[in-house]
Write a structure and sequence with these properties.
The protein has one helix and 32 strands. By secondary structure, it is mainly β. Strand 2 and strand 3 (about 60-65) form a beta hairpin. It is globular and about 50 Å long. The protein starts with a helix and ends with a strand. The relative contact order is 0.15.
Length: about 375
């Protein structure tokens, strides 16, 4: 029985889960909690950070920054207890400019069986082994952005894929996952205003960025296609499913579905969020903007199925699993909906502290990061 349970549990190894879609295959996920009830554990996370937690087996990884970015730390915690297993610090004598919303630890780390990788802006990329030893560090130069760096690394085979859009010379890069050496680098001139994390879709690397959605060859960095018409400021990451790539951008920008290769299936001109990424769950695409306006659309056609308004301001992206959709406001209140073609609110769960980071799902629980703490919500192992 223990082996069967282990096979049904799923790691959350990168930004928005196994394939960057924000969806878990796990069941028995929590529905109701407070800061004191139905909490397996909570721990203080030193420093500041807006990165999301990720998991690999019994490990939880997240990042934080201290001294205005002069010290960046990759943390490994025990998923069962919340205890710190190890930490790896990277010092930066010249931290990049950033904003209060982004901070100096916004990119979410990525993990596989052999390593965990974190991107720290001017402090570069660091790769740690299973025991916290630094396997390599790779500086990528200085980044100029009034809002900081937020795009997260993606591990793909033996590559670490990175989108490095900023006010300087923007570029897309692939590093060797074992050595940190640059395998290829593709210039992205004129694409400064984006903070989106890429995804893999049908063998293509898809990047949502300023003014356009682009597809690249992940093996070489060669540009394959582009779809124009995104807004000038892009933070939401795309998602892939049902043979389509779904992307959105704000403020109040478009939402669209395209096939791999770049053929547009449908397009909605207005209503896109500035920060929150969309969620494809079942046959619906859920899109929430910063003011809490939530729309469920038919994924095949883009037609509106229902619309609702949630209380609060939203920066975290929604996640889903076990037939539920989770949306967390900046005020720390998580709205739990029953997934489906009618709006059904199951619960509103307060943590009473600001939340900017998106949730992770692991071992029948949610991991929620507030400004000061990391919570594991739901029953412990």
């Amino acid at each position: 029985m223990a082996l069967l349970v282990a096979l049904l549990l799923q790691d959350w190894p990168r930004w928005r889960g196994p394939d960057g879609a924000g969806v878990s295959a796990e069941t028995r996920l929590p529905e109701r909690w407070t800061s004191k009830d139905n909490i397996a554990w909570s721990v203080v996370v030193p420093g500041e950070g807006a990165s999301s937690p990720v998991t690999r087996g019994g490990d939880v990884f997240l990042t934080s920054a201290l001294e205005n970015g002069a010290r960046r730390t990759l943390w490994c915690l025990d998923l069962r207890t919340g205890a710190t297993r190890w930490s790896l610090e990277t010092k930066d004598p010249d931290p990049e400019r950033t904003s209060a919303l982004t901070g100096h630890a916004a990119p979410t780390p990525a993990a596989d069986a052999a390593r965990v990788v974190a991107f720290f802006g001017n402090a570069g990329v660091v790769c740690a082994g299973p025991s916290g030893e630094a396997l390599w560090r790779r500086p990528l130069g200085a980044f100029a952005s009034e809002l900081g760096i937020a795009s997260s690394p993606v591990l793909h085979g033996d590559l670490v894929l990175l989108v490095c859009d900023h006010d300087g010379a923007s570029f897309l890069a692939a590093l060797d996952a074992k050595t940190g050496e640059i395998r290829w680098r593709t210039a992205r001139p004129g694409l400064e205003r984006s903070w989106s994390t890429p995804i893999l879709a049908a063998g293509e690397l898809v990047v949502n960025a300023q003014d356009e959605l682009r597809g690249y060859d992940p093996a070489t960095g060669a540009a394959l296609w582009r779809v124009t018409g995104m807004s000038g400021w892009v933070t939401p990451s795309p998602v892939f499913g049902k043979g389509m790539i779904f992307a959105t951008s704000g403020k109040d920008g478009p939402t669209l579905a395209v096939r791999p290769g770049g053929a547009t299936v449908w397009r909605i001109e207005k209503g896109g969020p500035y920060v929150c990424s969309p969620l494809l769950y079942g046959d619906l695409l859920y899109v929430v903007d910063e003011a809490g306006r939530l729309v469920a659309r038919d994924a095949a056609t883009g037609a509106e199925v229902w619309r609702a308004r949630l209380k609060g301001k939203f920066t975290a992206s929604p996640v889903a699993g076990d037939g539920k959709v989770y949306l967390t406001s900046e005020e720390g209140r998580t709205f739990v909906l029953r997934a489906g073609r009618t709006f059904e609110l199951l619960a509103e769960n307060p943590l009473d502290e600001e939340v900017l980071a998106s949730a992770a799902i692991a071992r029948r629980s949610l991991l929620l990061r507030t400004r000061t703490r990391l919570y594991r919500v739901g029953a412990a192992d």
